[in-house]
Amino acid sequence: MEPSRIELFGDITILLLIDESAARPPRLAAAAAGRLAAQLGATVLGASDEVADEAAWATDGPGRILLRAESTSVAPPTAVEGINVVRVVADPWHNEATLFAAAGLSELLGDPAGAPQVPAGQWGAMTVGYAVLAALASVRALALGGEADVVTVDCVDALRWVNWKAIALADLDRPITREGADSAWPILPCVDGHVALVHTPRDFAAIVAMVDDDRLRADRFARARDRATDPAAYLSIVAEWAAGRTRAELDRAFLAHGVPAAAVVSPAELVDDVMLRHRRAFTSVVVDGCEIPTPVAPVRVRSEPNPVRQPGSSTSPAAAALGSLPLAGVRVLDLGVLTAGAGTSSLLADLGAEVIK
Predict the structure, then answer these.
(1) What single DSSP character describes residue 97?
(2) Quick one: which of 8, 111, 147, 283 is 20 to 30 A from 36 by CA?
(3) What is the pTM assigned to this prediction?
């Protein structure tokens, strides 16, 4: 039986106000955050609901939030008692390409000899949408506690946070640049598509055993620092091995040898993935008579929370400050690796969770 779910935003009503003169990324980000909040239980109203007086509407009941998409040229509203606002802003000339350039992300994608690449599908705007959802979660805690504030999510700043690693390494005089064919984490062609090899130096022995090519056992590849000076030299041998095999054969080899790599799947294959179907990661929506698989809300919560230390159980100033945040009292065990783990845990900690690495 499907377990019951807590609707994290079930006690919130959001009025979504999109300034059509704003740039497309903040408009898309605000709309995406509104859809996610609705999937998580919020009641979301739009301009068509004809709210004549936004301030009066915001103070007319508990848990009301104004979500606005605006240009940075629009002056932020002054914090007013009882009125909670989340603003999504960008300069009016911004689009996906300029956001990627301003955040430094365009310097990370594509071949170094070619033009910078920008992913299709409004990747930047949708990423900002998750930042807006986090802002709504913070404001929700204020709204339900009878407090109010104005929170501004700048599209460029949100994507700069995504690029935090490049900024940190640049400060250490180790800038990240586009690597192209020299990437240590290459996409390798095979008989029926491609596989992604995402490995670390400690995985090299497993790769050697898997490929079983004496060229990889040469002294020049014995030390990680030597391999790092010319990764293409050993990766070309791995690529040669992969080229004559199917994705299924390669997946079995990766699993057998514990190599962190996997087949690159198409959208159709992703929708039909056994694990994602088991997790009910997709639902269906009908658009113009066509049934379209659509990802479900990114957060699902058990109806019975684990017994954890509740806010206020400690008298320290730090604990008292955390008590007002939306994830205060939640304990998270972080078993993640690389950016996905570190980034997620950082966001959870920012929202008040106690994160144990």
Answers:
(1) H
(2) 147
(3) 0.74
Question: How many Cα atoms sit within 13 Å of 64 on the Cβ side?
Answer: 15
Q: What is the pLDDT of residue 300?
A: 59
Phi and psi at residue 354, to the nearest 5°: -90, 115
Q: Which two tokens stand for residue 42?
A: 């919020």
- 290-325 per-position pLDDT tens digit: 888 888 876 655 544 445 444 444 444 444 444 567
d(CA 159, CA 104): 9
Q: Do 153 and 89 form a contact (C-beta atoms < 8 A)?
A: yes
* Structure token digits, residue 90: 């960008």
What angle do the packed helices 123-144 and 155-162 form, to 10 degrees?
Answer: 110
CA distance 230 to 226: 7
Phi, psi of 301 (to 5 degrees): -125, 140
- 182-223 pLDDT, tens digit per residue, is 777 889 999 999 999 988 899 999 999 999 999 999 999 999
Q: What angle (nearest 5°) sits at the alpha carbon of residue 234, between those of residues 183 and 223?
A: 95
